[in-house]
Amino acid sequence: MIGKTKSRHVIRVLDPHVANKIAAGEVVERPASVVKELVENALDAHATRVEVHVERGGARLVRVVDDGSGIAREDLPLAFLPHATSKLSDVDDLESIATLGFRGEALASIGAVSQARIVSRERAAEAGFEIADEGGVLSEVRAAAAAPGTDVTIRNLFFNTPARARFLRSARTELGHIEDLLRCFALAFPEVGFRLVHDGEERLRAAPGEDRRSRLRALYGRELEGRLLAVRENGVEAYLGPPSVTRPNARDLHFFVNGRYVRDRILLRVVKDAYRDAMHGGRYPVAFLFLEVDPATIDVNVHPAKAEIRWRDPQWLHAAVAPLLARALRGADLSVSDAGGGSGGHAGGQPGDREEGVRRAMADFMRRAAEGHGPRVYEGEAPEGPRQGVAQGASPPEPPLLGVFQAHDSWLVCEVEDGIAIVDQHALHERVQYDRILKRLSEGGVDAQRLLVPEEVELGAADCALLEESKDLLARCGIAFSPFGDRSVAVETLPAVVPRARAADLLRDLVDLLRARGGAVDPRTLFHDVADTMACKAAVRFGDRLSREEVMALLRESGALDRAFVCPHGRPTVWRIPFAELRRRFGRT
Ligand code: ADP
Ligand code: MG
């Protein structure tokens, strides 16, 4: 600083070009952000059809064409100006925003970092006009041939901000984000037609004029849609997946508030709470929640990309929405609707599924018929009478087991030498499987089963690419697959311990794991995670009826009754209640 005359720090107002480039950093993170802003504008203009064309993941081109209201000639230059919007006129409007856009900065920000062009024609107008914005430099408005509506083309995103361009991921990854985004728009606006075309290939098509159910079916497949439980009451519209379909993260929880897709921690809590009794705390359900609320009760102006909102009265959600969902889940006979036994895979209606369904329905019927007779009692392994550890040959000492029964197809209640033990069957089995799988993984690889008919799993382009990169690791896990189109894989082998019905679930979880871990990871670290994921899929579930042999095998293998275990997630698997505790509880001391 000494001697450097030029180094005085002076506060200056930024040149608008620079300011816009900085603002762009907030709004325009990647091609999907451009698509988001342009599609929001189309929807705000009441379009009934929105077409999105993308080249090379959007880095080279994003073009959104709508049949909405169009922009008047004199407004065209304003569209690219920062803080120029037709959607707000004074501060009070900020209190009750009913449109998706409102800040008037998206087009300015996008234009600052790309070569942009708008061609637009108002519905009633004779002709259209166009204007270009090249890195923040506006062209004249010129007449142009155009159909009614607006056509916005964004070329060479970040051409003048190379530092940002370097952050762009592969075209497949960027396309994956764009696809996710369009699915959300398509869900939020079932009456609007959407089409996404990438490098000339159609990636998504949703016909205009659909209702929510048919949209869900079109986007997520008939199998999942058919299992969703609908709730419609008091401005709440929800589609809830059965508790047996679980995910390791919140990716398949979709929240929409007044047509806006949002990430929201409070809604996440509300939905998780509704599933609390039916699902273990570390897992997430599949659910779509659409709320229509008075715009004055939320603040949408808290996040640069408008992806989050603030509730003026979050308590209302807990008080009004949560019970509605919980009641719906309780009321539904999910054990029956879940009879397919699958968990998120598609290929519904396969003969195997049906058999399994019948088997379960029968089991359910028998259980109901037997109600009033109390839970079934398994006689113990060991003979009656006073007992010591019953040693059998040289095998590990057998726990001094007296009697066991399976309560509610979920817990094993066991007499043990010094009291009673209650076992969480899923958690315990998971632990057993985890240890076994981890051992096999580090020794060379787990046993695989070859599927007679490959199981097709739809994952989306980006996730397929990710799996492809990890092919060797997956082979070691007993999973072999080949690409099936570019959005799906055909699974040819599965780990022997994982039932086919859980193939899709397993793959999705592994994809999440690989994504979370990034590309370069030490396989040893990954093995723990993989073993964890696989163990969860391989373990018997809560609600699975076990045969006497299965119960005994599980208890014997785990040695659970010798030690108090915890499952791989740290939850306890066994709860021992010693006689002393029982005596104390019953006031017998
Ligand atoms: P905002 O959406 O926050 O108002 P934008 O920068 O996204 O700001 O757009 C600026 C303005 O340009 C909008 O307020 C709207 O009047 C006009 N506009 C942009 N895109 C469209 C479109 N597809 N159809 C009609 N008008 C549009
Ligand atoms: Mg906008």
Protein traits:
five-stranded mixed β-sheet, Heat Shock Protein 90, 589 residues, formyl-coa transferase, domain 3, binds adenosine-5'-diphosphate, Ribosomal Protein S5, domain 2, single chain, 21% strand, binds magnesium ion, alpha+beta, 19 helices, nine-stranded mixed β-sheet, 4 domains
List the helices and strands and how they pair.
Elements: H1 16-27, H2 31-44, E1 49-55, E2 61-66, H3 76-79, H4 106-112, E3 115-121, E4 128-134, E5 137-138, E6 142-144, E7 149-155, H5 162-165, H6 171-188, E8 193-198, E9 201-206, H7 212-220, H8 222-227, E10 229-233, E11 236-240, E12 253-257, E13 260-262, H9 265-274, E14 287-291, E15 298-299, E16 310-311, H10 314-331, H11 334-337, H12 351-369, E17 404-407, E18 411-416, E19 419-424, H13 425-443, E20 448-458, H14 461-469, H15 471-476, E21 480-484, E22 488-495, H16 503-517, H17 523-538, H18 548-558, E23 574-578, H19 579-585
Parallel strand pairs: 1-8, 12-14
Antiparallel strand pairs: 1-2, 2-7, 3-4, 3-7, 4-5, 4-6, 8-9, 10-11, 11-14, 12-13, 15-16, 17-18, 18-19, 19-23, 20-22, 21-22
The structure holds adenosine-5'-diphosphate and magnesium ion.
